[in-house]
Amino acid sequence: MKLTSRLAAVTLAGALALTGCSPADTVATAKSVDPEIAAKIEAGLAEVAGTVLSKGPNGEDPAPESAADLTDAEIEKIKSLGLTAAIVMHYGGNDWSTAQIEGLESEFDRLGVEVVAVTDANFDPARQVSDIETVLTRDPDIIVSIPTDPVATAAAYGAASDAGVKLVFMDNIPHGFVAGEDYVSMVSADNYGNGVVSAYLMAQALGGAGEIGVINHEADFFVTQQRYDGFMATMEDNFPDITIVEEQGIAGPDFAGDAQGVANAMLTQYPNLDGIWAVWDVPAEGVMAAARSAGREDLKIATEDLGTNVAVALAKNALIVGLGAQRPFDQGVTEARLAAGSFLGKEIPPYVALAALPVDHENVLEAWEQVYHSDPPASVADAFVE
Fold it and tell me: What are the residues whose beta carbons fall under 8 Å from the beta carbon of 78, sequence distance 6 or more?
């Protein structure tokens, strides 16, 4: 599908507001890029701004995060119900997961919902099944979760649904599940849009031409596939002079280590490789390690998710050239509201998505505040170079 058919036009001012850049910043960033390529990139980022490009797992149109809003009267009603909730994570070892949990816990606290368990499966489906079974002994009213494997975990989530637990999912749903019957809703970032953003930022760094490698997620995982699709479609449709010379999937759970191994092989086979795209920030950390080991500080790396280590690299203007960021704290808040609101008989949309946030060196500090609702850590703020 052509990218242009998936984009809704918005103003350039909207794109600049989203990225935290002024028009002067944009001109400065694009000085070394051919004017025609620079204009194409600027227009592409403007089209993405504030627009959700992704569809839901069953082809649903995205609803905005405002669909989860609750009135004061509804909040008081929820508080009177004495609800409990459990958070069942696929993996807890990165900034994205931490922010999701913080958003969920803060909003559940505001709504008077007690969180009785938080689990971390470390990307192991069998462990997540065990986590679900253990959590069910606590008799929660709500489970908010992200399946590690949509097939292997389906029966366990099905048991929770059959027990009357309200399920809200992050980013992925179990195989065969139907919204409104088996679960309440799914909340996600615009992962297709994040892939689009990372493609434009990579193209900007390359001046619209070069050879790159791609490191994808080798798993049946809805949102990482969307990122890959968005990145690949944008490159194919807009940048014929950028050639993907090597593509490799990684399955984890050591995503940084696996990506480092793949990147090492790419840089050995293609010593003049211009850039590598990594499917999220943890694999990108492995790519950075490989680049440093090979003495390739000039390698251009684009990715998704604003983790601490890639944020430090962006602040230093080193290796990482840009990324599409999710807003995990806000996603957690939205998930909590949808879950609680389902007890009031509200009509709940099956799929809610939050727009992609383009991040580069110029706006990394402001983007951190927007993504995490906190000041950048000293490791990021102190690394920033003008």
Answer: 70, 111, 112, 113, 340, 341, 343, 344
Domains of the chain and any CATH numbers: 3-57+191-328+357-381 (3.40.50.2300), 68-189+329-354 (3.40.50.2300)
DSSP codes, 321-374: EEEEEP-HHHHHHHHHHHHHHGGGT----SEEEE--EEE-TTTHHHHHHHHHSS
Distance, CA of 325 to CA of 193 (rounded, Å)? 10
- SS3 state at 144: strand
Under 8 Å between Cβ of 360 and 92? no
Distance CA 213, CA 184 (A): 39
Cα distance from N-terminal residue to C-terminal residue, the chain: 40
DSSP secondary structure, 215-279, as one string? EEE-S--HHHHHHHHHHHHHHHHH-TTEEEEEEEEE--SSHHHHHHHHHHHHHHH-TT--EEEES
pLDDT tens string 80-124: 999 999 999 998 878 889 999 999 999 999 999 999 999 999 989
In eight-state DSSP terms, residue 16 is H
Q: What is the DSSP-derived secondary structure letter of residue 57?
A: T
Tokens of 353: 């998505």
CA 237 to CA 140: how far, in whole Å?
47
Integer Cα distance of 193 and 226 in angstroms: 8
Residue 211 pairs in a beta bridge with 243
In eight-state DSSP terms, residue 167 is E
- Please tell me the pTM assigned to this model: 0.81
Contact 171, 227 (CB under 8 A): no
In this structure, what token pair is assigned to residue 110?
């505001």
Q: What residues have CB less than 8 Å from 252, skipping those under 6 apart?
A: 123, 219, 258
From the centroid of its chain, how far is CA 151?
22
Tens of pLDDT, residue by residue over 291-335, are 999 999 999 999 999 999 999 999 999 999 999 999 999 999 999
